[in-house]
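Build the 3D complex.
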Amino acid sequence: MHDLPQQILIGLQLGSIYALIALGYTMVYGVLKLINFAHGDVYMVGAYAGIGAAWLLGTWLPSVVHLPPLIPSPLGAVLVLLASMVICGLLGLIIEQAAYRPLRTRAWIAPALFLGAAVGYVAYGIATNANRTPVSAIIIGIVAWAGLAALLYTTQRRRSPGSGSRLTALITAIGVSLFLENFGVLPQIFSSDPRFFPNDPPIARLAPNVETGLIFTVSLVLMIALTYIVTRTRIGKAIRAVSFDSDAAALMGINTDRVIAFTFALGAALAGAAGVLVFGLQHTKFDPYVGILYGLKAFVAAVLGGIGNIPGAVLGGLIMGLAETLVVAYGPNIGIDSTYRDAVAFFLLILILLFRPAGLLGKFAPEKV
Amino acid sequence: MPLLEVKDCTKQFGGLTAVNQFTLSLESGEMVGLIGPNGAGKTTAFNLLTGVYAPTSGTIQFCGSSIAGHKPYQIAAAGISRTFQNIRLFPALTVLDNVRTATHLHYQPSLLSAIWRGKSFTLAENAARDEAMALLERFGLGKYYGDTAKSLAYGEQRRLEIARALATRPKLLLLDEPAAGMNPQEKNDLMEQIRTLRDEFGVTILLIEHDMKVVMGICERILVLDYGQVIAQGTPREIREDPKVIEAYLGEVDAGSSVS
Amino acid sequence: MPLWKRFGGIALVFGLLLLLDHLLYGPSRVAHDQYKEDVLIRCGLAIILAVSLNIVNGFTGQFSLGHIGFYMVGAYVGAALSTYGHTHLFPQLPTDGSPVGLWTSALPILAVSLAGGLAAAAIGFLVGLPSLRLRGDYLAIITLGFAQIILVIVRNIKAVDGATSFTGLPVASQDQALAHVATPHLTSLFWVFLVAALVIWVAYSLRFSVHGLAFLAVREDEIAAEAMGINTTRYKVLAFVLSAFFTGIAGALFAHYQSSLSNESFRFERSIDVVVMVVLGGLGSISGVTIAAVLLTILPEALRPIAQYRLVVYPLLLVILMLTRPQGIFGREEVSRAWLRGQLTSIAGWFSRRPDRV
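Done.
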């Protein structure tokens, strides 16, 4: 159908995106032994953040400053990318502080603040729908916020640190993921209408091959940057230490909470970048649910390479991208319909979990009896 | 025929040889101790005997048939039971239920009868419960039968683990550091209890222990392990004075000193 | 249990359900509200799903996220049987999907339920055997993966119009009157709650027997359980297959309640709905998950104003629940006076001034 080199390029490009997202999964699993279900949704937010930044730079700013787009296209695109990375990094940080950290520690301020805000907003929204006046709706929202804050304060106070089980964390992650998706779908937030990055600067359409090459190159640059951070900086060393043995790391004086927060932010930033790269450069449509499938597949890629293993995530991502592309391109020749495209990921998942659960590059740590 | 016959059993984990040419012969009714410095491979030996690991080479014969490589539940059914170095009770279950789970081996009503609850099922359940209760009483835990296992004091938890192991009606009981973390009074009580176990339950006992007083006090025969190998075997007195044993524990010492 | 007690109990349940059926569908038609019936049937199905999932996730501690796959298998197999088997097996059933009376539906429902349940159980066995080697997160993920694969496979089966909606079977036959055979509407409150009662009975009986102890032991400490003679693999697979069986039956019941089966009903999110019920009710508590199932089915209906926010409230509640009360309402215990006393004591403890010491 298409020539092989072309397909391989496409596969690598897809794979590099999977790798970027997979890195977030694998790093978080390394330090927390938690599968962050919400990670795919951070990728989704990245796309929306990108659109917002693009609008800001390309439409709003020129209209305010009354000059032609004073930020040339390549620079503008980079700014959009960075903006998305920063926003998503912050989001990752917030999620960690508000939902995951309180499970391990007695922290109550962050969850009370952010979860409370969410509850308050929902209460306000429900009150509005129930035809309350705007003022009373706001008051209801604030009361709900305060109520939750009080509840969290009392329950967190009596928590014995380290008492959260992994199952609890897993369910919490699922909850955060569903929340992000369904919150985004609300008409006043992102709504479920599909969106496209506009064709204007700073992110205008480019030739397909240029796009593919660009995605792959930028991903590569980001991954190299990450490798540098993880191997050459102090915080990177701390991340590796906590991944290896968090108790020992803590005993060595490493502030594990801070390391974990940073890891979340880092992974989330990469996911945000991926969101801009995929939807910004390719101008494909997206909606708040787009993170589910991509996230799941990227997660499979992380497991494929060995969850907790950074090079493994990259390897897994590339293999995944190639496999999926090749199945879609050549599958019909051997009777596999291209609608089975999504099943490729799950098929790979099951294969790897059955025959090599530690992943290609991972090490299985057996339980001590 | 010896009850347990282990010949040249070796266990390797990649490059590490945890247990090397382990040989042991146990007659029915014996009380044998297994000692050695930390990391000598004692618990690994237990894990080999109970099927947690399969030996890399060597044979293990129990009551005449090979058990090497069998699954732990099969070995338990054959008649070997154990306690664990770091207590492994069922923390959220009650004390009684902890022991009842082990009676499972000998009271196995079918699934359907569990749903139908016929007469045979009720009889079996009651008999199992009575047996479990009796074991609890025997170990002085009767009054805690309804409490959760994790609410028990440490020494009581250790006793509960032994009671649970005995509920499988084993022929061979492996005790992994039963006296760990106990104060001298508790240790004395434990020694008394283990001594009578053999006669009361007809079990052969193999025990890992670090406390020399306990080991010398109740074991008839002792094996010493160091770096995965048996370096000495004999009566308590012989072991006390064996220079190889002394060296393993204390490093090179002048002749004439002894391990006490 | 004395014989009279046992048979008396069964007779009582049957009698109550027959009374209910008579009231709703019988000639007197005391109360028939389509909407309320719909909610009640969904409650019943939720109970079956939650209690059977509890066997795996709650009793045995194996966290499965993919049970929606078994629901789907049961639904489609059941529907396929009743539509394809129409001419030879169920000629007495109407082909237009109109409701079928209680006695006429008895044998067909038994047949499709068993078919759906056994098919789901078989798939459960195939999925469970390799998956149950894995622990915790990995098991959750692999069951999710299997469920997705089942979804994709069913979508690609033309025989049941997997890609769109299965409304039954367009039959190109000589007899033009049989132009379309719809999935018969067999399900009614009677059958749903009969099965629910059955599942609860089985769950209770197993839980409070030596087999229940084996499940619990596997959950608490697999290595110790194995050392005490429990074949942990056997029990894990057993729990999985059993729960898949009942989930499949629920699927078959569901298929014969709807006029069409669309694969939209079987998305991964639906699996989460049941997981939330089990977690909210308390992993391991039969009465807890039953109450949670009913609550979580009725509540969205009762709170119409929040309809738009329902999908947001749900996960938010989940997160808050995990933070404040991860053991769910009942934890591992059943409803009982002792439980009530325990709750009152701990609430009283809230008002004491001393903070908990670590």
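Chain A has two domains: 10-100+168-194+208-355, 106-158.
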